[in-house]
Design brief:
- By secondary structure, the chain is mainly α.
- About 50% of the residues lie in helices and about 5% in strands.
- It has 7 helices and 2 strands, in the order βαααααααβ.
- It has a two-stranded antiparallel sheet.
- It is globular.
- It starts with 5 loop residues before the first strand and ends in an 8-residue tail after the last strand.
Length: about 210
């Protein structure tokens, strides 16, 4: 991840998102890639020209795999309505299913507020007008402050640093859990590609 004081917004490397949000695609995308890779594996001829090995029986589709993980509790139950913003009944800027997951996962008040700040900043990247440069900058700055809040306040010290990184990755994955949401997120990152900003100073937590 980039240093929080100087964030390079040059085009991201393959498999990584750009801007201040260069977090790896998380559980949902991992399940998708894994499922496709498993489904695409086939046999070939063995040594000595023997008969080809029959292909393995098809595994679960990526959606079936995600559903299995949700049913087992390894992934939270996610809303997948055909709305980029999803359902936010209390209008707090965080999708209701993600807010529910955060409440159950982060019981420490400081960590809870930091997680909600990250989720709110991520949600904004899906909804921003990518042709409005001022709005893009505001969303980017909000994301930088959310990252700084996680690193400087909510998850400090060696014992919590990895947990903070996992939070960032997880919330990115939950936010981009449908094709339409992922496309909106990538469009935001494309719009911010090449920009550079200095990390936030002063109070960073909301």
């Amino acid at each position: 991840m980039p240093d929080e004081h100087t964030i390079d917004r040059s085009p991201p490397a393959a498999g990584m998102s750009g801007a201040g949000w260069r977090w790896r695609q998380g559980l949902a995308l991992l399940a998708l890639v894994t499922g496709l890779a498993l489904a695409g594996c086939g046999g070939g001829k063995s040594a000595g020209g023997s008969a080809p090995t029959p292909p393995p029986a098809p595994g679960p589709t990526p959606q079936e795999r995600i559903s299995q993980l949700e049913a087992s509790g390894q992934l939270p139950q996610l809303e997948r309505l055909p709305l980029i913003g999803g359902v936010d009944a209390d209008n707090d800027g965080v999708r209701d299913d993600i807010a529910d997951h955060i409440r159950k996962t982060y019981t420490d008040p400081v960590q809870y507020r930091a997680a909600m700040q990250v989720a709110r900043a991520l949600q904004a990247t899906l909804l921003v007008d990518t042709h409005d440069h001022l709005a893009l900058r505001e969303v980017s700055d909000a994301g930088d402050r959310a990252i700084a809040c996680v690193r400087r306040v909510a998850f400090v010290g060696a014992a919590h640093r990895l947990e903070g990184s996992r939070l960032l990755q997880e919330l990115e994955s939950l936010t981009t859990n449908t094709k339409e949401r992922l496309q909106a997120y990538l469009a935001y990152n494309k719009a911010m590609s090449g920009s550079v900003s200095v990390g936030p100073e002063g109070s960073v937590c909301e």
